[in-house]
Amino acid sequence: MNAAERRWIRADLRARRGQAILTVLAVAGIVTALITAATLLEDGTNPWRGLFARGNGAHVWVHTKDAPDPALLRSLDGVADIAGPYRSAPATFALGGKKAPVALQEMSPVLPAVGRPIVRDGRWLDAADPAGVVVERSFARASGLRAGGAFPVVGLDGRTHALTVAGLAESGDQGFYPEWTPGLAWILPGTLDQVEPKIARSESVVGLRLADPDDTALVAQHAITKLAGQVQRVTTWREVEASMELDNRLLGVLLALFGVAGLVAAALAIANATGGRVLTQRRDIATLKSLGFTRRQVARMLLAEHGALGLAGIVAGVLCGRLVTAYALADTVAVPLSPVPLLAIAFGAAAMVVVAVWLPAWRGGGTPPLPAAPVAPPRGHLSRLARLALLVRLPPALVLGARDAFTRRLPAFLTTFGVAVPMMMITIGLGCWATLDAFQRHPERVGQAAPLLARPGAVPATSAGQVALADPDVLAAYPGSEVDALVPGQTRTVRARALGSVTDPYPFSVVEGRLFRDRGEAVAGQGLLDLLHVQVGDVIRVTVGGTPVIVRIVGRVLEPEQDGEVLSVPLDGLAAKDALPPQYHALVLRPGADLAAVRTRLQSQGLEVSYVVNPADRLVVIRVIIVALVVVLALIGAANLLTASAVGLRDHALDLAVLKAMGLTPRQVMATLVTGTGLLVVLGAGAGAVAGALLSSGLIDLQGAASGMGAGIGRAPAPLTLLLAVLTAVGAALLIALIPARRAARARIPVTPR
Amino acid sequence: MTTASEAGQPAIRTVNLVKIYQTGGLPVPAVRGVDLRVEPGEFVAVMGPSGSGKSTLVHMLGGLDTRTSGEIWVEGRRVDTLNESAWAVLRRQQIGFVFQFFNLVDNMTVADNVELPALLAGTTPRHARERREYLLGELGLADKADSAPAQLSGGEQQRVALARALANQPRVLLADEPTGNLDSRNTRDVLRLLGEVHRQGQTIVLVTHDGRVAGLADRVVTLLDGQIVDDGAVAPRRRTRGGAGDVVELRS
């Protein structure tokens, strides 16, 4: 690049620092939001990464009969460090009639360097409290354990030991309970000796941390060979990761949608800013060309200047994203975004910047080299409507401003569009918000009429229903069972849920067709329909619990579980051996009932009660993203508006003198300018809100269908919210337009151009 | 180029130059068949009433506007067939422009404005700075180097524009109404400077509709409706230059 080009770029950037900073901020904001969102998504769907990194986990865990020689394992090729060996003994956790197998693993009061459990609640093991154990959190949650609570265990010899829960900890070294059994509890070596005195009945566990995780299979194989005959089983990080991974397609696709739309909005902002700047600079560019700048040089210069701003924004955004995830979200996120999505975001944004800048830069390069030729402001005359408006004494500023707004068609369209797109995105964001609200306030409309599930526990299975119904807050208890069903043409099973009966069906949220009325009928979620390529009304053959059954799918329900791959039938539609006694009762509560209180009461009756997880609870992170995106989109809208105001002022530099000469007061001149911009903003915000409202429920439904839950979940934002959003946008826009207009109206306007 | 001019080539030559604008589908002829020959070192004033095509002519000579037909030769080289980029390169090396409205780049300082053409032509920043210091010193603007153009008076801006036009020591200086937007005092200053560079051997083509300004030239070409109606030397009037200046002085 030529020294002259560089000097011009430097001078131009210096002359419009504020605008340049705003462009950088807008891009940085978008990139930060994308990186934060992607990091949260990655962390949310793959909790193993964070746990493993925090706990400095071991890649391979080897379970052996006797304690192996640590030096032997440490000397293996590719092993960086080892954890243990720890002694681990099986026992039974028994509390309130509930029994669960648990592995007691010894650990010292000092946390080890490798394979550290991460204490989340309470405290770590303490030599002063030999009865205290630390329980793995997912197991504790499933068993209703809290720090400070009792943890009675029965050893293999039948003796009960009254241990207490000192703390809860997470670990990346084994999967979550109940997918990964038995439950895990860490215990002091001395206490373990008391619970299980016989070494022969316990095993030894040793963790290997590898220098290169890719060598896992090889190192595991070497370890097995070295410990010939001793090895009972080996688990690797890949199995743990796979067992922890959530299939959260809904979240992923929503984020991708937001990401793409955010990038488009940013591209629009940059294209608008560049285009506006080039338009206001036509005279300078013409001068440069008369001095001997070629078309290519001018285009390259503009591309470099505006592209550099965008790239600076991307770099700042990447840094900001890293800082935000490292500091602001330090509690939730342990590991920064992995390189692939990071690079995808950075390069996607860079490509978008270059494309957005290229067109206005190329057009700027084509400016004719005749600086004297004035850029003719488009001529227009007052329309009949305008004359009529003046006749009925509408304020002249309003009429003149309205006329100005549309004299330059393309910029007017770009401004309107530049406001409409962010507004549409904001509306869609509000729609997502409203959908989440609907999930939480009315779970019965998304297929979760029953917030609690009661399992018999200590109560005889046949009378569990009566016990539950005896509670004043329980309105209904639907007996249910869940069995695996084998469907033709599939190698895996789907879930068949028998819930309610033909005469007293569970209140499913049927969005298509009807509920089952007979024993041979069933309803299914979108996921199952997609999996089997069937539609409502089709007859399918499934094998439920070994019994072939032919059912007609008579309706589609909203199915938040199992990606919608659930077939729901009446309980009396199943063979008696599968149906009786029912595994659980789904409890529908009186509106306004306190879930926790009901649960505690029923627990004390001997029932085992668990909460039904609301899908919205898993999507809480989306709310954070929505807020962040609204901020970024507002920033983009503001950048667009500033450009529009600058272009408008340039067009009006001459008009202003004329208007003043005609006797308009500065206030009227200002009002004219603000009306010119404001009208376009009102149009854009209105159009964006309407488009967003129309699109949002459709988009969310589309998304719902893709995630298997099924269309019918989408909610448009409430009209009041929408109105408020539009008013805020217009108000903010008018304020933004007011500042330059005020300055222009007060300024001494030269009568001749320069 | 030096060899070409030494061989008696004119600095600028046009052959039957025609420019027709299309305005709303109607052809509007601005220049109709102009044959002009400007010798190296000559100072030619192009006069004529408004709309006579004099600005269009000088714009075509500098490649700012394209010709409809005819030929343009600069230093013995045919240039009307050049494309836009080649014209740009030609302008940066051999042609300097001065406009009525100065057309300084507002964002840049006076110093940057003057150094820009030199840098564009590939001069080192140090040489560009030395040339700028020399030119601004000659034009009495040395202390304004770091000012923004908007802080300068019209006359000062036009002198900066002149310095910028001369930065690359062009073969030809094209000036389009350089005093059209100045008061008499500044007009006199700018004309004095033009006279000085002309005495140093600069070829100048100057468009004006002011007879007193044209009186400074070696030769006055008068255009009317896009055609040359008069072309003659004004050597005797050059001696009365001081007289004309006095008249201006009296009126102001």
Protein traits:
heterodimer; A: 754 residues; alpha+beta; 4 domains; 6-stranded mixed β-barrel; 23 helices; 51% helix; disordered C terminus; B: 252 residues; transmembrane helix (chain A); Macrolide_Exporter_MacB (chain A); ABC3 transporter permease C-terminal domain-containing protein (chain A)
Question: Short description, anyone?
Answer:
With 754 residues, chain A is of the alpha+beta class. Chain A folds into 4 domains: 1-40 and 251-375, no CATH class; 52-244, no CATH class; 380-444 and 615-754, no CATH class; 449-613, no CATH class.
Q: What does this molecule look like?
A:
The complex is a heterodimer of chains A (754) and B (252). The two termini of chain A are 31 Å apart. In chain A, strands 2-3-8-5-7-6 form a six-stranded mixed β-barrel. Chain A is of the alpha+beta class. Chain A has four domains: 1-40 and 251-375, no CATH class; 52-244, no CATH class; 380-444 and 615-754, no CATH class; 449-613, no CATH class. Chain A is globular, with a radius of gyration of 34 Å. Chain A is built from 23 helices and 20 strands. Chain B has a single domain, classed as Rossmann fold (3-Layer(aba) Sandwich). Chain B has 252 residues and is an alpha/beta fold. The longest helix of chain B is centred in the last third of the chain and has 16 residues, at 184-199. In chain B, 39% of the residues lie in helices and 26% in strands. Chain B has a six-stranded mixed beta sheet with strand order 6-7-8-3-9-10. A four-stranded antiparallel beta sheet of chain B has the order 2-1-4-5, covered by helices on one side. The radius of gyration of chain B is 18 Å and the shape is globular. Mean pLDDT of chain B is 81; it is low at 1-6 and 237-252. In chain B, a hairpin with a 2-residue loop joins strand 4 and strand 5. Chain B has helices at residues 2-6, 54-61, 84-94, 110-120, 125-138, 154-166, 184-199, 211-214, 235-239, 241-251, and strands spanning 12-23, 26-38, 43-47, 69-74, 77-78, 95-98, 172-176, 203-207, 219-224, 227-233. At the A-B interface, helix 1, helix 10 and helix 11 of A face helix 3 and helix 4 of B.
